């Protein structure tokens, strides 16, 4: 009694200790036999009209006896599919219908039992990493199962699909539609939206083609819109469909086409011949029926094969365990040996490996998948250029076998069905042509003339494209000849004579020539978009818009000699004088009319003294006396209010006028040019789109300008000194002009130039792709997303001059720091001088007057 309690306690303790550290409680094959359950559903077997339980027992025991060299297997047989298996079963082989198979799978999951299920056709596959499912597929009825497997194994990651199916196939496979629309959450099959189109395959000849064309035309892309569609075709008419689809431009980089080829013999099928009219960029895959015609399917055979696979796998694992066990100590063995799940995963892998190599009976049905590798093939770096093998449009296509489908293993693929959709150009190296044209393309070369570094706005776009579209590239410089260079015009070799900034209007002739041969994926040049419909190449969407403006001398500041009068207008000054002249007599009168004599102030008893009083108060000299009468006080009080207002506004305004200097009117808009007679020379840079634009415009000022303009091509002709003197105006890209201003500011720390307020002529700048390039829409889509993510704006900011230093914020700072200088104060000093002079003159008068008075008095006195 006591000892048993003790034992229980110990056991309890052991459990307590063992559970938290997750011990590996599944014994290894060395210490215990593997246990296997075989469940053959009796009901299902009667329904099928077969009874194989007895055979199964015989088959299994034969196999175990003959093939199991190491370890042992205990097998238990059940005929009822609702049986609950205990935890210590390693695996189970079941033969039952689809529904019960799934039920059984869900029940055994918590006990972690490896399931090998033989079941009906058209059954969604059990999770591939947890079970092996073998649907019994009748010969010729495999489509529903194939479609289900496509969905379960996500061979085609499609959200929408257009399905073309022959009428007869649909009639033969009643569950085909059901499996196409099948969706499930346990298997993570998301629903797809579907357009199912039945092809009446009894039609022949013209009628057939007309029907197909009508059907396909509904999905044809219109010219400027990129559509991405997926097509699944199960039809005997695949050749017609490809041909008609091609004439409707339905094979482009966005579309995916999956064809099930129904030819009985796959050797008759030549993908190259079928796709002969297709252009590069097509995504097309074929599934070919490789079923061997003389293969007989039996349940016996399948069970035999599967059991053999299982037994050999277990045997193989046991050998491995024995080998490892012999090498290491017991403690180590305990810590490294497989858990049940790991063991099952390993067995599953071994079984699949075995079945791939050895399966004979249930792999009767077999569909091979071939997909076309087409993208970038003709532009691939020096790969096919030299020896085009065939003279067809698809001569560079390459069809690769990506894997196969069989009922036992489902799809076994080593590559994506449409590799280009996911991997785009698959890291091939493309040839790209370019020219040096900062800041768009900046090429840095080493002493051998090889390009070692590239940057600039266009190059950043190329780099991003290559990242997004998964290709590498090799740059070819087009400007081999100096004359082709549109930048360094003429033969001048004087560096300092070259114009700064860039132009994109004239694309070098060599670039155009090279692009036309369709050997280059893209021309990485910034080019002005002009008459896109008449060019032997295509433009991408614009990557930049540049505008023109003009540069003139910055207008001079207004003279500041009268600055001190600036706060008030002329009328205000006159009124001020007026009110002084009015207030003085007023004060005099009020003071005089005071009824009481003692209230009168002696100091205000004359008009003159009143005037001085008012004047003095205005200039804040203060008054020595105040009227005693209320009336007088009121007048003086209100005068003081007027004084306060006047002085405050004057002071405040004076500050403002000091801080913000005023300028003479400059040329803000081109049509103001008439008014500026001193500007006598008009300049226009050579090679501008502006020149071309003016020929079609209706703006008179442009036409007038162009007719007078001198086209300049180098620094000497540009004559920036004349602009500085105010005799000349130049038209160029705003960014180029900003560069000039910036350069002069950095050199002289002064701002002598002003750019026009007006920007005119939007010049669109784009990249160039060869005519008929399959990838134009693709490139456009990615450029678009670069815009949306703000990349292109950022590259513009990095490469183009920022808002120039002589305007905007830079100028603002300069204004707030404005120091009052002699220019500002001169008027002030002059007024003081005037005051002195007036005072001196009046002093002289006063002196003379006194002398005169004194001499008269003396004369009176002597008289
Ligand atoms: C293990 O299997 C062998 C042969 O398959 C058998 O002889 C042996 O009795 C089995 N052992 C147990 C414990 O079931
Ligand atoms: C595939 O080929 C086999 C043998 O040629 C044929 O029996 C079977 O019907 C074909 N399958 C389909 C779906 O046509
Ligand atoms: C298919 O075409 C044949 C021949 O033109 C016609 O007799 C038949 O009615 C059509 N079937 C359907 C379903 O339209
Ligand atoms: C299955 O195989 C057993 C012998 O292993 C044989 O007797 C039986 O007839 C076979 N059954 C079928 C349906 O072929
Ligand atoms: C680029 O293509 C290669 C070759 O197909 C592929 O292995 C790689 O995953 C792709 N990279 C990306 C980012 O798609
Ligand atoms: C892509 O190709 C380049 C050069 O051909 C190579 O250096 C790079 O490793 C490749 N990348 C991938 C993901 O294959
Ligand atoms: C380049 O221009 C500068 C200034 O205009 C001049 O002094 C120099 O001689 C010129 N050099 C040549 C090679 O023309
Ligand atoms: C490409 O250029 C050709 C001829 O210049 C023109 O007809 C075609 O519309 C252009 N393609 C696109 C997509 O703009
Ligand atoms: C403008 O440039 C072109 C080509 O570079 C040249 O032929 C032409 O003479 C230049 N015109 C002027 C006025 O410099």
UniProtKB/TrEMBL annotation:
GO terms for molecular function: ligand-gated monoatomic ion channel activity. Keywords: Cell membrane, Glycoprotein, Membrane, Receptor, Signal, Transmembrane, Transmembrane helix. The keyword Membrane applies. It is a multi-pass membrane protein. It is found in: Cell membrane. It comes from the Eukaryota. The keyword Transcription does not apply. SUPFAM superfamilies: Periplasmic binding protein-like II. One of its GO terms (cellular component) is plasma membrane. Its main location: membrane. GO terms for biological process: detection of chemical stimulus involved in sensory perception. Residues 1-23 form the signal peptide. Residues 570-836 form the Ionotropic glutamate receptor C-terminal domain. InterPro entries: Insect_Ionotropic_Sensory_Rcpt, Iontro_rcpt_C. The chain crosses the membrane at residues 561-590, 634-660, 829-849. Belongs to the glutamate-gated ion channel (TC 1.A.10.1) family. This is Ionotropic receptor 93a isoform X4. The gene is Ir93a.
């Amino acid at each position: 009694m006591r000892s048993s309690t003790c034992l229980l306690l110990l056991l309890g303790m052991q459990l307590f200790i063992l559970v938290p550290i997750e011990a590996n409680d599944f014994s290894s094959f060395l210490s215990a036999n593997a246990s296997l359950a075989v469940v053959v559903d009796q009901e299902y077997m009667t329904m099928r009209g077969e009874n194989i339980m007895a055979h199964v027992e015989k088959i299994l025991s034969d196999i175990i006896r003959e093939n199991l060299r190491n370890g042992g297997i205990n097998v238990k047989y059940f005929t009822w599919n609702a049986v609950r298996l205990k935890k210590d079963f390693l695996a189970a082989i079941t033969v039952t219908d689809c529904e019960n198979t799934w039920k059984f799978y869900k029940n055994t999951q918590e006990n972690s039992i490896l399931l090998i299920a033989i079941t009906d056709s058209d059954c969604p596959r059990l999770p591939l990493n947890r079970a092996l499912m073998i649907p019994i597929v009748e010969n010729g009825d495999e489509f529903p199962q194939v479609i289900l497997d496509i969905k379960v194994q996500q061979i085609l990651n499609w959200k929408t699909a257009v399905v073309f199916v022959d009428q007869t196939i649909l009639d033969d496979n009643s569950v085909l539609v059901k499996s196409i629309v099948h969706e499930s959450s346990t298997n993570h099959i998301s629903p797809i939206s579907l357009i199912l189109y039945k092809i009446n395959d009894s039609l022949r000849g013209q009628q057939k083609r007309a029907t197909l064309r009508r059907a396909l035309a509904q999905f044809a892309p219109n010219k400027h819109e990129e559509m991405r569609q997926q097509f699944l075709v199960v039809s005997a008419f695949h050749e017609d469909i490809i041909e008609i689809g091609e004439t409707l431009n339905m094979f482009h980089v966005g579309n995916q086409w999956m064809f099930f080829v129904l030819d009985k013999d796959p050797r008759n099928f030549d993908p190259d011949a079928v796709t002969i009219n297709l252009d590069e960029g097509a995504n097309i895959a074929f599934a070919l029926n490789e079923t061997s015609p003389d293969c007989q399917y039996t349940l016996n055979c399948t069970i035999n094969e599967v059991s053999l696979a299982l037994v050999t796998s277990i045997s193989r694992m046991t050998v491995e365990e024995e080998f490892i066990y012999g090498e290491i100590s017991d403690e180590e063995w305990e810590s490294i040996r497989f858990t049940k799940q790991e063991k099952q995963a390993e067995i599953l892998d071994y079984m699949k490996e075995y079945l791939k190599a050895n399966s004979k009976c249930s792999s009767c049905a077999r569909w091979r998948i071939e997909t076309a590798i087409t993208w970038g093939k003709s532009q691939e770096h020096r790969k096919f250029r030299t020896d085009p093998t065939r003279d067809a449009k698809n001569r560079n296509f390459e069809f690769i076998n990506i894997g196969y489908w069989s009922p036992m293993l489902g799809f076994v693929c080593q590559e994506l069905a449409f590799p280009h959709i996911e991997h785009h150009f698959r890291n091939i190296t493309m040839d790209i042509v370019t020219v040096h044209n900062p800041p768009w393309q900046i090429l840095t070369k080493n002493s051998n003339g090889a390009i070692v570094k590239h940057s600039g706005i266009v190059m950043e776009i190329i780099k991003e494209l290559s990242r997004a579209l998964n290709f590498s590239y090799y740059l070819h410089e087009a400007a081999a000849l100096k004359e082709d260079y549109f930048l360094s015009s003429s033969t001048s070799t004087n560096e300092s004579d070259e114009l700064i900034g860039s132009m994109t209007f004239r694309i070098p002739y060599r670039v155009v020539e090279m692009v036309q041969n369709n050997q280059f994926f893209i021309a990485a040049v910034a080019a002005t978009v002009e008459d896109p419909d008449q060019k032997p190449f295509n433009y991408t969407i614009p990557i930049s818009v540049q505008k023109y403006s003009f540069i003139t001398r910055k207008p001079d500041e207004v003279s500041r000699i009268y600055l001190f009068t600036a706060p008030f207008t002329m009328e205000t000054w006159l009124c001020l004088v007026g009110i002084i002249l009015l207030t003085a007599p007023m004060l005099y009168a009020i003071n005089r009319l005071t009824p009481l004599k003692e209230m009168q102030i002696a100091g205000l008893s004359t008009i003159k003294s009143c005037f001085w009083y008012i004047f003095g108060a205005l200039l804040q000299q203060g008054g020595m006396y105040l009227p005693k009468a209320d009336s007088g006080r009121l007048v003086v009080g209100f005068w003081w209010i007027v004084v306060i207002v006047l002085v405050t506004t004057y002071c405040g305004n004076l500050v403002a006028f000091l801080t913000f200097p005023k300028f003479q009117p400059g040329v803000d808009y081109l049509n103001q040019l008439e008014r500026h007679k001193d500007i006598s020379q008009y300049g226009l840079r050579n090679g501008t789109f502006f020149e071309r634009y003016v020929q079609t415009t209706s703006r008179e000022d442009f036409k007038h300008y162009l007719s007078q303009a001198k086209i300049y091509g180098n620094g000497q002709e540009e004559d920036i000194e004349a602009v500085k003197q105010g005799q000349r105006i130049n038209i160029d890209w705003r960014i180029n002009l900003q560069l000039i201003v910036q350069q002069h500011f950095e050199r002289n720390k002064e701002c002598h130039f002003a750019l026009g307020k007006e920007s005119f002529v939007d010049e669109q700048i784009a990249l160039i792709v060869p005519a008929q390039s399959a990838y134009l829409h693709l490139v456009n889509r990615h450029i678009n997303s670069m815009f949306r993510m703000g990349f292109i704006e950022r590259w513009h900011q990095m490469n183009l001059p920022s808002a120039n230093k002589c305007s905007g914020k830079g100028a603002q700072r300069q204004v707030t720091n404005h120091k009052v200088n002699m220019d500002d104060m001169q008027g002030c000093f002059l007024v003081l001088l005037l005051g002195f002079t007036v005072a001196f003159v009046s002093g002289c008068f006063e002196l003379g007057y006194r002398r005169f008075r004194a001499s008269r008095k003396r004369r009176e006195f002597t008289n």
